[in-house]
Design goal:
Layout: H1 6-19, E1 24-25, H2 26-32, H3 45-68, E2 73-77, E3 85-89, H4 102-114, H5 121-132, H6 156-166, E4 169-174, E5 182-194, E6 197-204, E7 209-214, E8 218-225, E9 249-255, H7 261-266, E10 268-269, H8 292-303, E11 307-313, H9 316-325, E12 330-334, H10 336-353
Antiparallel strand pairs: 1-3, 2-3, 4-5, 4-8, 5-6, 6-7, 9-11, 9-12, 10-11
Helix pairs in contact: 1-3, 4-5, 9-10
Length: 355
């Protein structure tokens, strides 16, 4: 199977059909366009049949995608042999000029930042540079969110994105919050983000049920397995608990002025006048009335010149990492479990640093 991605193969096909002055038959396309597998020499009849079927399915999908993009792809029949079909892209197949604003460019910059550390990072940077070179610069309103890099290790996110497009199953090592690392075989349906956390939603082949996987818990490489177009993706993803955009917990974080901007963007101010230890819904992070100790801690932090921010979150380990990364410019006021966890990790780091 070719290592060329589906996107690159379709680009190769578009260039080949745009550059020719005559029609190209399927066999000519198969032989000329990088990305389509040819029949290896010495292949058995069964192997040739499988390769032919795979090519036909792949080519039909690529044709549909090019036409969906608005390219004038023509099917031309040989006048003498009506069953001999050929293909060509006629006319000016150049893509229309992009009319992007500075705000659009900022959003693209966030997408480029997301791919940092993945195999698509260089392509993303080069593509971004070409696109924004023609944008007229000017004033732009600030975006209501900040950027982040993909949390999956190595090139897992890129591999998952390609497998979703190709409808091909994948295998990876995964450690859930309640179980040890185990190999999962999944038909990937889509990737969603909730509260700054990425999740893969798909069909777990071994468990025969839909499952949700946090990308940050995937270890090692994501490997494609089996045929492409091996399954159908549902029209709408079964989000389960992720269907509720609100986080399940709320923390009160004390921040030094002009620090913790990502936390501030996700949260809301919790000034001394509202220092009651409750969430926006009138409950504490534990779902109960906050104690007098929490209220006292909030008041003390506010009086010491810290800014109090209520931050929604789903995963304690991610928020703990954000607080620790601020190196003393942030501290947890509530809940107690998060504050104690941050303190324990900070002590462990100091013990390692001091031998």
């Amino acid at each position: 199977m070719s290592d060329i991605s589906a996107e690159q193969r379709r680009l190769n096909l578009m260039l080949a059909l745009s550059a020719t002055r005559r029609r190209l038959t399927r066999e000519e396309i198969r032989a000329r366009v990088d990305g389509y597998d040819t029949v290896p020499s010495g292949a058995t009849a069964a192997e040739r049949d499988r390769a032919d079927v795979s090519f036909q399915r792949m080519f039909e999908r690529d044709k549909d995608e090019l036409r969906r993009m608005g390219l004038p792809l023509r099917t031309i029949t040989d006048p003498l042999h009506q069953d001999d079909l050929g293909y060509r892209i006629d006319g000016d197949a150049a893509l229309p000029d992009l009319d992007l604003t500075v705000r659009d460019a900022a959003i693209l910059a966030l997408a480029v930042e997301y791919w940092q550390g993945a195999s698509l990072a260089e392509d993303a940077r080069m593509g971004f540079a070409k696109v924004v070179s023609a944008i007229e610069h000017g004033h732009s309103d600030s975006l209501p969110y900040g950027g982040m890099a993909t949390s999956a290790g190595h090139d897992a996110t890129a591999a998952l994105a390609e497998a979703i497009v190709d409808r091909q199953a994948v295998r990876f090592e995964y450690a859930s919050a309640s179980s040890e690392t185990a190999r999962r075989t999944v038909q990937p349906w889509g990737i969603v983000m909730r509260s700054g956390v990425e999740y893969l939603i798909g069909w777990d082949v071994d468990r025969r049920a839909p499952r949700t996987y946090r990308l940050g818990r995937i270890s090692g490489r994501v490997r494609p397995t089996g045929d492409i177009e091996a399954f159908e993706r549902p029209d709408s993803l079964p989000l389960g608990d992720l269907d509720d955009h609100s986080a399940t917990l709320t923390a009160v974080i004390a921040l030094r002025p002009e620090t913790g901007h990502a936390l501030r963007l996700r949260g809301e101010p919790a000034g001394a006048e509202s220092a009651h230890g409750e969430s926006a819904h009138g409950e504490s992070a534990h779902g109960e009335s906050a104690s007098g100790e929490s209220a006292s801690a909030e008041s003390s932090a506010a009086q010491d010149g810290w800014d109090l921010v209520r931050v929604p979150y789903r995963h304690e380990d991610l928020l703990r990492a954000e607080v620790l990364a601020l190196r003393g410019a942030a501290r947890v006021v509530s809940p107690d479990s998060l504050r104690e966890s941050v303190a324990a990790y900070a002590r462990a780091a100091m013990e390692v640093a001091h031998g």
